[in-house]
Every structure is written in structure tokens, then in C-alpha cells.
């Protein structure tokens, strides 16, 4: 999927991002697109002042997945959950939960509790703080800061404790206060479909319908998501704790129309992955595990030599392996020291070395060295590529490549 | 290789690119790096006025490969040639040639011909036009525009006709005028090594040592490269001709020092691929071939159904295939029309469909449909994933995926 990014260069020189989903919605509107599905990993730009000490720069990476188009209810919405599930599972970030809720259920809840409509958004932003703040404090903000009756706040307090799957749904569907609100009923029907589809997609065990989830962004019109890492909070000082939000999003059916001169309506749903956060967690985990951080090269084989005047030999072997599609490197020295080549492979996590030597050349072959076990075996040249491929497949299997 | 791009956001808001190699050299200098090798595909920004009619925007994509560090002569330089060779071969852009030359050979040639030293750069930029302009016109510019003696221009004219491999090298090495210039001798020694290494890397047949190659950029200090597509110049009106320069670069040993306050010397060599040009060629070729353009999705299997009320079945099959790592899609409709699913697969080049049906479900399986041949076969559910993997491997083999 290629983004015509040059279009962006003409908003006073650059496209500044306002928030997740916004650049996508603008793109859909500007290009009069009716259906599209795309992911996108790229730099975006914040217009506010950089705060370098907090690692908050004007420029940062964002990773989004969005689906635009008029479809049947909750099918793309459920696929978004599946995608977040796949990403977080494959990144191996530890245990996680994908919280889901619905704008209409939230609004219905506020109405059922007796929140005046003009306070919905303001009370919603208080609820949004529940992932970091205790209920008592949030309640205080609602009552003292925002003038909500204490009895109303207490009713909200009962709801936002709730999370679950179908049993919660049943409970809410038999809640007369809530189901008196038509939009809440529709929201609950949506959630029922979503949970059902999540079950079919094999991800329900990681999904939690959570009434305390209230993302602050005004433009959400349906389901909202937030993925939270829940694992291993017992980390040492200075380490990035692998807990907290790593993805969020939801349905925003009105946003495209805001950017289209004719107000064309294109419903959208999407998720943004906190990619910079994910990287720092992965980096700190990798350091903790092996002290080496994450691999920054994909090299599979280092072609090495411990004797002099074997540069040409090494080059020929590189050519052979490159032609076979094996990711191969050699040091750019005429006569590098063997130790340097071993150290490079260990430092960069290159799993295998091919060692060229005079003795082996006479015998028509080379040695293969396993960086991990340090074992070395002679292989005839004709058998080299198949043998490397076999070992690389094994490495992959044991997750060492 | 992760670039700390946020650093760039602090040159008056953005990093403007001046030319290829410059952002990389600046990065190496700013981070006091001694050795690094990296590729980079990203947007860069030109400070000059956009000319939209020429497709010249402030923002465009650049794809570079650079190697920095103190190494033995011509080893990284030859790897750059191999990398360009691999990229252009794998992109299947038709026949190409990688022209190589050397700054010192060029300067030596000018000296041997009797060009006054203060005119080297100016005459060099005339030579640079030879890929697009006839010699007679270039000569006219040299003599009438730049005041070069005609006899001197004629001597240059004899040199810039020359191209070849080792036989050209021999000829030049026995050229008394040229070898009287010490730096030219050193340049020829470099070229001898380069051609030898290119032979070892299996790419010499695509390399041409070409004395007419003179890249305009002042900062090159050694080898210079330019890759030219040579194939199929007989195209219809309005089509992008698949000829001309698609990559260029060279050695620039002094550039890092210009950005380092202490003038730290880090030799570099690198190549930039004209990625926007490459894309437009690939697109126009693909359209010519099949009328469909290049695939923008990687979907391998579309899970489809022609009967009603099989959404849940489709979702389950998607889950099965996703779990098996197969790139799978289904339409986000409850009851999509079978024809729409066929058309989508044909339009997007999805090679296989899995068709869910009541009859097949009773028999415990599904049908697999080949988008290309339109043949359909029943497969039992337990055999589905292995069968799809087998067929996808075949598709890959016949380059249809």
C-alpha cells in the first residue's frame, strides 16, 4: 500500500499529525476513497514543543492499522482485535489483555446513572484516568471538580468495576436502567457480536469487555480498544516496566466526513500500536536476558578466515552464499584477525561462521562454526549451501536467528 | 539498523536533504561513529520550490546503501557494485549495466590532456552530460563556452570513447601521458582491484569501466558508479521508457570530516537507488504485461462463500489459516456475492480461494479454487493447510504470488 505522501508536503510545508486516525481519515477524504484497508509504519510530527527530557520529540514513529468502508456490523472491528492479538503475541511482550468497550454503552451508562448530557464528555475523561488512578480520586474529581452529584458518581463507580465476557453482557442486557437507553441497547448488541466474532477468531481469552475503558478522543463512535501489558511488574530500577498501554483505537465513523468538502460518509475502524514503547520494552528485555540488546543486523553467516591471503577465497564463498539467498557478511579487511571475526559474530548474534583455511581448501571444503556452541565441522564445498540452510532452519526453530 | 531520526527534527524543525550521502555523512559525524553499514529507504525533503508538473515535490523517497569505516582498498567499494547488481537483477527491470570510473583517473585524464587544473571541475561537469548529449555538442561547450583549446578537447574526446574491463585497464596503464600523473596511477590500481573483486563477486559481466562517467558531485574522492537500464527503448507514447540512470554513487572520504567539529576522518562509499523512478518503471511494465499494475496486497488466500449464513464458517477457516501463518482475507460482509469474491481475487491477484459451502461442510471439508485456472477441488479440513502450503509454494515457483 503506497501512500501519496507528497500530497502531505503541502500543508505549510509538512503534515503535522493531530492524533491517531486523523491523517488516515484525511487521506481517505482527499482521495475520495470508499473502501481501503492498510497498515502504516512511519514518522509523524507533533506540533507542540518537544520535551527532550521526557523523550517527547516533534518527530516520532507511529504504526497504525485502519479499515475504511461500509460493511456488515463488527466484522472489521473484530479483525482489528485479531490483528492486535497477533502483533502482541508474536512480539512476545509477555501477557496482555485487550480491553474493549463501546461509546454508546459508555454514554448509555452515563445517562442511566443520571449524568447531565452536557457533562458526558467531561465525566468520560475522568473515567479515562481509571487505568492510572484509584476510583476514590476519580470520584473526587467528578464530584468536587466537575460538580457531579455524589450519588451519580457512586452509580458510575458500580459500573466501571465491571469487566468480563458474555456473563457481563447478560447482566447489562437485563439492567433496566441501561437498556432503557436505545443507543445503549444498540451498543450492547454490537458488543455481543464483537465478543462472538472474537471467539470465532480464537482470541476471546485475551479480550475483556471493560466498562472502565473510556478513551479520551471525541471522535470515537462505536467500539473502542486498548491493549494493556499485564506481565512482570517486578523490574529493577531504571528499567522500563513492561506494563501499561501498548495499543489503542476504535471506530470513528464521522471523521472522514469532517475532511471531505461534501461530507462523504466513510465509516472507519482502526488501531494504533505504541511502536516506540514496544521497542523500548523489547530492548530492555533483550538486555536483561542476554546483556546484548536486540539484533540490529539479520546476517546469518559470517565468512571468516584465520590465515593470510585468503581474501579471494572468502569473496568466492560470499558470492556462492549470496547467490543462494543466504544473508552473508565478511569483514572488509584483507587479512582480518580470526578473533575479531568471532567477536563480531558473537556481538551481532550471527549464528554461523564459514571458515576458509588452506588445509580445508586442499580438502575441497570449509569449516562451519556454530557461534553458540563454538563447535566446528568440516563440510565439502558442494554440500555447504544445503548444510547451512539446514542449520539455519534449526536456528530459526530454536529462535536463535 | 535504527536511525535516531528525532535528532534530525532539530535543524529548524526538519532535516532538509542537500544531496545523496550528505544526511548519512552528517549522521556519522554527529554520532562520532567509526564504522557502520546501513541501508535506508525513507522520505527526504528538498529545500527548493516544488515543481508539481514535473513530479518534483519537496518530499520524495530515497533509498541509500552506505558503508563507513577504515578498511582495505576497494573491498566495500566492490560490495556496493554487488548490491546494485542484486537489486537490479531481483527487480527484473530488464538489462542493465553498472558503469564505474574513478575521480583520480578522471583528473589524471584531464591533466594528461592538458586541461588547466582550475578548469577540472568545470570540464568534468561537461563530461557528465555525455549520457544525454552527443560528443560534438559537449566539445562545443568545452571550447566555446569554457575556453578550452580544441586540441585538448579532442584528446578528451578520444578518452571518453573508451570503456571495457581489464583490456582497457592494460591500455591505460601503458598510456605514458596518463601514468605520468601519480594520482592517475593510483586510481588505475584501484580500478584493477575493483574489477578483480567484481569478477570474484560474479558481477563483472554487468560492469563497465567507462571513462565518460563523471558524476557531477564535488565530494567524490575515489570510485564512482552509475547504473543504467539499457533494455527495450521501443515503447509507446506516454510510457515511461525503461532506460536511463537508476542508481548512482561513489566514494566520499572527506564528507564526514566536513560535519565533524574536530574534522574526524571517516571514509565512506555508498549508492543511492532512484526508487521513485524504479517504481514508475515497474508500474508501467506491470500494466503493459497484464493491464493490472503491480499487486498492492500480499494476500495468498481469500476465504469465500456463495451461500448465506456461512459467515461463522468463514471466520473459523480464516482463524485456522491465520494460525498457520497463511496470509488470508475475507470480505467484511455477512453474505457477500460469490462473484464479488472471485472478482476481488482476480483484481488483487490473490492466487487461491477457499470456498465454504453447506454441502462441503457436511462432507467435512471445503473447496480450493485456483484463481488462474478456475479449477475447484474438494479438500478435507484436516488436509487444508498442508494442501494450501503446497499450492502456494508452487505459485511462488511460477512467480504468480
From TrEMBL, chains A, B:
<keyword id="KW-0067">ATP-binding</keyword>
<dbReference type="GO" id="GO:0004821">
    <property type="term" value="F:histidine-tRNA ligase activity"/>
</dbReference>
<feature type="domain" description="Aminoacyl-transfer RNA synthetases class-II family profile">
    <location>
        <begin position="39"/>
        <end position="282"/>
    </location>
</feature>
<dbReference type="Pfam" id="PF03129">
    <property type="entry name" value="HGTP_anticodon"/>
</dbReference>
<feature type="binding site">
    <location>
        <position position="66"/>
    </location>
    <ligand>
        <name>L-histidine</name>
    </ligand>
</feature>
<comment type="similarity">
    <text>Belongs to the class-II aminoacyl-tRNA synthetase family.</text>
</comment>
<dbReference type="InterPro" id="IPR041715">
    <property type="entry name" value="HisRS-like_core"/>
</dbReference>
<keyword id="KW-0436">Ligase</keyword>
<dbReference type="Pfam" id="PF13393">
    <property type="entry name" value="tRNA-synt_His"/>
</dbReference>
<keyword id="KW-0547">Nucleotide-binding</keyword>
<dbReference type="InterPro" id="IPR045864">
    <property type="entry name" value="aa-tRNA-synth_II/BPL/LPL"/>
</dbReference>
<dbReference type="GO" id="GO:0005739">
    <property type="term" value="C:mitochondrion"/>
</dbReference>
<dbReference type="GO" id="GO:0005524">
    <property type="term" value="F:ATP binding"/>
</dbReference>
<protein>
    <recommendedName>
        <fullName>histidine--tRNA ligase</fullName>
        <ecNumber>6.1.1.21</ecNumber>
    </recommendedName>
</protein>
<dbReference type="GO" id="GO:0003723">
    <property type="term" value="F:RNA binding"/>
</dbReference>
<dbReference type="InterPro" id="IPR004154">
    <property type="entry name" value="Anticodon-bd"/>
</dbReference>
<dbReference type="GO" id="GO:0006427">
    <property type="term" value="P:histidyl-tRNA aminoacylation"/>
</dbReference>
<dbReference type="InterPro" id="IPR006195">
    <property type="entry name" value="aa-tRNA-synth_II"/>
</dbReference>
<dbReference type="InterPro" id="IPR004516">
    <property type="entry name" value="HisRS/HisZ"/>
</dbReference>
<dbReference type="GO" id="GO:0005829">
    <property type="term" value="C:cytosol"/>
</dbReference>
<feature type="binding site">
    <location>
        <position position="62"/>
    </location>
    <ligand>
        <name>L-histidine</name>
    </ligand>
</feature>
<keyword id="KW-0030">Aminoacyl-tRNA synthetase</keyword>
<dbReference type="GO" id="GO:0032543">
    <property type="term" value="P:mitochondrial translation"/>
</dbReference>
<feature type="binding site">
    <location>
        <position position="215"/>
    </location>
    <ligand>
        <name>L-histidine</name>
    </ligand>
</feature>
<dbReference type="InterPro" id="IPR033656">
    <property type="entry name" value="HisRS_anticodon"/>
</dbReference>
<feature type="binding site">
    <location>
        <begin position="219"/>
        <end position="220"/>
    </location>
    <ligand>
        <name>L-histidine</name>
    </ligand>
</feature>
<dbReference type="InterPro" id="IPR036621">
    <property type="entry name" value="Anticodon-bd_dom_sf"/>
</dbReference>
<keyword id="KW-0648">Protein biosynthesis</keyword>
<feature type="binding site">
    <location>
        <position position="46"/>
    </location>
    <ligand>
        <name>L-histidine</name>
    </ligand>
</feature>
Amino acid at each position: 500500500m503506497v501512500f501519496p505522501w507528497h500530497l502531505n508536503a503541502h500543508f505549510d510545508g509538512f503534515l503535522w499529525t493531530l492524533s491517531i486516525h486523523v491523517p488516515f481519515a484525511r487521506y481517505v477524504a482527499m482521495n475520495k476513497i470508499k473502501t481501503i484497508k492498510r497498515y502504516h509504519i512511519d514518522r509523524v510530527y507533533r506540533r507542540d514543543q518537544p520535551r527532550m527530557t521526557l523523550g517527547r520529540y516533534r518527530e516520532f514513529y507511529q504504526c497504525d492499522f485502519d479499515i475504511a468502508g461500509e460493511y456488515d456490523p463488527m466484522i472489521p472491528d473484530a479483525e482489528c482485535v485479531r490483528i492486535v492479538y497477533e502483533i502482541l503475541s508474536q512480539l512476545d511482550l509477555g501477557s496482555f489483555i485487550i480491553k474493549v468497550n463501546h461509546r454508546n454503552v459508555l454514554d448509555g451508562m452515563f445517562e442511566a446513572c443520571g449524568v447531565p448530557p452536557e457533562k458526558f464528555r467531561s465525566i468520560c475523561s475522568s473515567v479515562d484516568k481509571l487505568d492510572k488512578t484509584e476510583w476514590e480520586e476519580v470520584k473526587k474529581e467528578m464530584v468536587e471538580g466537575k460538580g457531579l452529584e455524589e450519588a451519580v458518581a457512586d452509580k458510575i463507580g458500580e459500573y466501571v468495576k465491571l469487566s468480563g465476557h458474555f456473563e457481563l453482557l447478560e447482566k447489562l442486557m437485563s439492567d433496566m436502567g441501561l437498556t432503557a437507553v436505545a443507543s445503549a441497547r444498540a451498543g450492547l448488541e454490537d458488543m455481543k457480536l464483537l465478543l462472538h466474532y472474537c471467539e470465532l477468531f480464537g482470541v476471546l481469552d485475551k479480550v475483556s469487555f471493560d466498562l472502565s475503558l473510556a478513551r479520551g478522543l471525541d471522535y470515537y463512535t462505536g467500539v473502542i480498544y486498548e491493549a494493556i501489558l499485564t506481565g512482570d511488574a517486578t523490574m529493577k530500577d531504571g528499567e522500563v516496566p513492561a506494563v501499561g498501554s501498548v495499543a489503542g483505537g476504535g471506530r470513528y465513523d464521522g471523521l472522514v466526513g469532517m475532511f471531505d468538502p461534501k461530507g462523504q460518509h466513510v465509516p472507519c475502524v482502526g488501531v494504533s500500536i505504541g511502536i516506540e514503547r514496544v521497542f523500548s520494552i523489547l530492548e530492555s528485555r533483550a538486555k536483561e536476558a542476554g546483556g546484548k540488546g536486540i539484533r540490529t543486523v539479520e546476517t546469518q553467516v559470517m565468512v571468516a578466515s584465520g590465515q593470510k591471503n585468503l581474501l579471494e577465497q572468502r569473496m568466492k564463498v560470499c558470492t556462492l552464499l549470496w547467490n543462494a539467498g543466504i544473508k552473508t557478511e565478511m569483514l572488509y579487511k584483507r587479512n582480518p584477525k580470526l578473533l575479531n571475526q568471532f567477536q563480531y559474530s558473537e556481538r551481532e548474534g550471527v549464528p554461523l561462521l564459514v571458515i576458509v583455511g588452506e588445509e580445508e581448501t586442499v580438502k575441497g571444503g570449509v569449516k562451519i562454526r556454530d557461534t553458540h556452541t563454538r563447535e566446528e565441522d568440516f563440510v565439502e564445498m558442494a554440500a555447504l549451501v544445503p548444510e547451512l540452510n539446514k542449520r539455519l532452519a534449526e536456528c530459526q526453530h530454536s529462535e536463535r536467528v
